[in-house]
Amino acid sequence: MPIPGRLPGPRYDVPELPEVETVCSGLRPRITGRRIERVDLRRADLRRPFPPGLAARLSGRTVSDVTRRAKYILVGLDDGNVLVIHLGMSGRLHFVDNGSSAGRHDHVIIGFAGGPTLVFNDARRFGLLDLVRRADMAVHPLFEGLGPEPLDPAFDGCALAAALRGRRTPIKTALLDQSVVAGVGNIYACEALFHARLSPRRLAATVIGRRAACLAATIRDVLTEAIAAGGSSLRDYIQVSGELGYFQHSFAVYDREGQPCPGCDCDGRVARIVQSGRSTFYCPRRQR
Ligand SMILES: [Zn+2]
Hints:
The protein has 288 residues and is of the alpha+beta class. It has helices at 17-31, 54-58, 157-164, 171-176, 186-195, 209-241, and strands at 36-41, 63-69, 72-77, 81-86, 91-96, 106-112, 117-122, 128-133, 243-244, 271-275, 278-282. The chain is built from six helices and eleven strands. Strands 1-6-7-5-9 form a five-stranded antiparallel beta sheet. It has a four-stranded antiparallel beta sheet with strand order 2-3-4-8, covered by helices on one side. A two-stranded antiparallel sheet has the order 10-11. The structure holds zinc ion.
């Protein structure tokens, strides 16, 4: 029985790398090469204040490219700056028709000349907007401590084992550390450990050799599969709602506590434990 006032609706998980990649794929064809005509900042901050003069500094600039680093959307501009967007917990980007009135939690509105209007909506306001010189990105506080991109060929078992060396935390917790690998969050850490048959409680430093190679490959696989699901949902979905980045994706263990363990001969159920304040879903028999 639904609780009045808490209607069941779509679940919005914190965006992770595949969701952010899907947002980038949705943005890229619609804003690349377009000039920013107007910027409406409807408040002065989200997680932290917007950079000074943000609206004026964006106005008149043309978008050169849209890329991603970890969970940051990077909108390159023709003056050598990059508009950095982080969706935080609940941030969403969507396109609206020109002249639409702003809705609740629509905090930033960017209108493109002769093109779409992009809206950043963020009910919980953990999102972030920053403007960074492209040349300074590697040493910028948001980026300098980030580990390798998991889809980069350089991210392999050796790289992962090196990043985990000496770490006395559970492997699940280590995977959420953005200096170990960038962009992996709670959902895909759980999924990758399940498919790699590694216990989330295993000491991170013991993930070496073939175990590390298997885990690195599995992280890449679960992310690649989710990005593919995002891409197909984008094609089906964007025309309907204009919203970017959220898609229906089925998980093996994430948020499936008590359900049968998929594709597993353990005859058991998916278990949930809490590690560093985050829920971990796993199969206690299959994952060692
Ligand atoms: Zn199982």
